[in-house]
Each structure stands twice: as structure tokens, then as C-alpha cells.
Write a structure and sequence with these properties.
alpha+beta, two-stranded parallel ribbon, 48% helix, flat
């Protein structure tokens, strides 16, 4: 979450794809919802496959 905040402060337009396996006290769904609320374009729960990651990055980057 701190990294997302730092990226948003320094480079507000940079696309972010967050990924998490969760913490001991907070589930991955809560963490990923928070990441999106902080500005991540996509949030992936581990484990995920390569195709899912590539698609999330494509969507975050938008048309090139």
C-alpha cells in the first residue's frame, strides 16, 4: 500500500498492477480492494497465470 501511495505521489499517471497473496491478519481480497481504492488499475490475487498477468498489464497500459 505504501508503494502505491509513493508511486501516485511521484508519478500520478503511471499505471499500477497490484498483486498479493494476502497477509496473516488481512485476506487478499481486502488488500486488493484497498490497492484499487488507492489507484491501482488492476489487482491480482496469487497464484495467477501468465495470461492473466499479461491481460492485466495490457488493460492498465491502454492503447499504445
Amino acid at each position: 500500500m505504501e508503494t502505491i501511495g509513493e508511486i501516485r505521489a511521484r508519478w500520478p499517471q503511471m499505471p499500477i498492477v497490484a498483486m498479493s497473496g494476502g497477509w496473516r491478519t488481512i485476506g487478499p481480497d481486502t488488500i486488493l480492494e484497498t490497492a484499487k481504492a488507492l489507484g491501482a488499475q488492476a489487482a491480482l490475487a496469487k497464484p495467477f497465470d501468465r495470461a492473466t498477468l499479461v491481460e492485466a498489464v495490457r488493460r492498465a497500459l491502454g492503447p499504445l
